[in-house]
């Protein structure tokens, strides 16, 4: 059920983004009286889910959710309609229009992506406000994965700053480490301030970590208290098979008690043999339940951790949300652009993901706020990626148009055809590479 919800959210988000992106090209073309022959959401090799013609344009929906397209008359695009290009240019064709009009038509989709993201962020802030956990309010310190433990952090450390710069939002710390590559981290440990030198290999290790399968735990979270209560069982649950009930409360594991959730996890992970001895409280009775563990060393329980942190909440009026939402959009654009520098590290290529990775970022339960936040983020990614100067992308067309504006000379049509074909093969390679990475992650 969780997977189905993720898929539905992903397809709805992708449909919105593709339709509005292509609508940006469509509207710009219509403004300059350029004929649009086709408008399709998703690609339609061999057949379409539906199609109809109204006026000069055929509208439809394909079955392959790799994007969408508008076929603009008189333009070398993914349709590769070369026969049309052999005929004399007609007044309603793309190639007959001034370079500045063609440039606006080509950036129309990207502009809509950015405007959509800004609009979504404005409405999110107006409807829900902004909520985050100030770093100093993670009062029990941090819980770390082994990667950061090896880097020198300890569970329970309270993070003060990185390179002596405070990060206001606790959940932005992992991203800050990845993007800013700080050399030191300042923490409070057992009442004493400590300066920890981060290893130079940390960024590469973090990128490698992100490529190793989907079932990872978080690198860094607030340290949550845990009283042993159960939220629900997983679908495959050794604990439920052993007779544990949802009303049970876990008291001890292998004779050891715990206060924090990371301690509870460590007790399970450090268990050596195949039988885990769990003491639970059921009503007024204390029971000992032996649980047969599989190779994954999990008991199949979703814990009900205690989230007693004081979150910062900012509420916005509609007019106050406008500048704040636009600023949030620009912050995301800058953040995404910064990620390109990570490709200096070879491990970054292994972390590239395709459709499974994108779908997996959506929550397993339908959450409209999360849905719109992720849709806005994907809209920015789609906008930035389409601006890359790669033939077959909008940015490739923009690059050639800028060349024409500067030199006042159109690129050779044969060159444009070959560039389009080369760009399409390159994008196909990237698509296969990203999705093969995803398939490999399923088996890691």
TrEMBL record:
The chain crosses the membrane at residues 103-129, 376-403, 415-436. Residues 236-282 form the PDZ domain. It is found in: Membrane. Keywords: Hydrolase, Membrane, Metal-binding, Metalloprotease, Protease, Transmembrane, Transmembrane helix, Zinc. Its cofactor is Zn(2+). One of its GO terms (biological process) is proteolysis. The keyword rRNA processing does not apply. It comes from the Bacteria. CDD domains: S2P-M50_PDZ_RseP-like (cd06163). GO terms for cellular component: membrane. One of its GO terms (molecular function) is metalloendopeptidase activity. SUPFAM superfamilies: PDZ domain-like. It is a multi-pass membrane protein. It holds the Pfam family PDZ_6. Residues 10-430 form the Peptidase M50 domain. Its EC number is 3.4.24.-. Belongs to the peptidase M50B family. This is Zinc metalloprotease. It comes from Butyricimonas faecalis.
């Amino acid at each position: 059920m969780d997977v189905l919800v993720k898929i539905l959210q992903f397809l709805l988000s992708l449909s919105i983004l593709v339709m509005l992106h292509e609508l940006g090209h469509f509207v710009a073309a219509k403004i300059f009286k350029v004929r649009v022959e086709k408008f399709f959401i998703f690609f339609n090799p061999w057949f379409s889910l539906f199609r109809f013609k109204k006026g000069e344009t055929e509208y439809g929906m394909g079955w392959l959710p790799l994007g969408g397209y508008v076929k603009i008359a008189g333009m070398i695009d993914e349709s590769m309609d070369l026969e049309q290009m052999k005929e004399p240019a007609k007044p309603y064709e793309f190639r007959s229009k001034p370079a500045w009009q063609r440039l606006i038509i080509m950036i129309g989709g990207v502009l809509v992506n950015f405007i959509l993201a800004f609009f979504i962020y404005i409405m999110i802030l107006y409807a829900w406000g902004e909520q985050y956990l100030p770093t100093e309010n993670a009062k029990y310190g941090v819980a770390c994965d082994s990667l950061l433990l090896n880097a020198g952090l300890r569970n329970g450390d309270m993070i003060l700053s990185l390179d002596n710069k405070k990060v206001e939002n606790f959940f932005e710390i992992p991203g800050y480490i990845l993007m800013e590559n700080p050399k030191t981290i300042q923490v409070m440990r057992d009442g004493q301030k400590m300066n920890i030198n981060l290893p130079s290999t940390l960024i590469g290790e973090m990128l490698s970590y992100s490529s190793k399968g989907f079932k990872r735990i978080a690198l860094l979270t607030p340290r949550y208290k845990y009283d042993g209560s159960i939220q629900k069982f997983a679908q495959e649950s050794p604990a439920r098979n052993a007779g544990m009930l949802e009303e049970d409360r876990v008291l001890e594991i292998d004779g050891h008690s715990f206060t924090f959730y990371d301690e509870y996890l460590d007790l399970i992970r450090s268990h050596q043999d195949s039988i885990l001895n769990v003491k639970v409280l059921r009503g007024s009775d204390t029971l000992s339940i032996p649980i047969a563990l599989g190779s994954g060393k999990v008991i199949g329980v979703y814990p009900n951790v205690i989230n007693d942190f004081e979150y910062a909440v900012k509420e916005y009026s509609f007019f106050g949300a406008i500048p704040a939402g636009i600023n949030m959009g620009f912050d995301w654009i800058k953040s995404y652009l910064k990620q390109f520098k990570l490709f200096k590290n070879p491990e970054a290529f292994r972390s590239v993901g395709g459709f499974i990775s994108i779908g997996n970022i959506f929550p397993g339960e339908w959450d409209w706020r999360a849905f719109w936040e992720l849709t806005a983020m994907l809209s920015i990614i789609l906008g930035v990626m389409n601006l890359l100067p790669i033939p077959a992308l909008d940015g490739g067309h923009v690059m050639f148009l800028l060349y024409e504006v500067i030199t006042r000379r159109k690129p050779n049509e044969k060159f444009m055809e070959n560039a389009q074909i080369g760009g399409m093969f390159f994008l196909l390679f990237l698509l296969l590479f990203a999705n093969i990475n995803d398939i490999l992650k399923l088996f890691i």
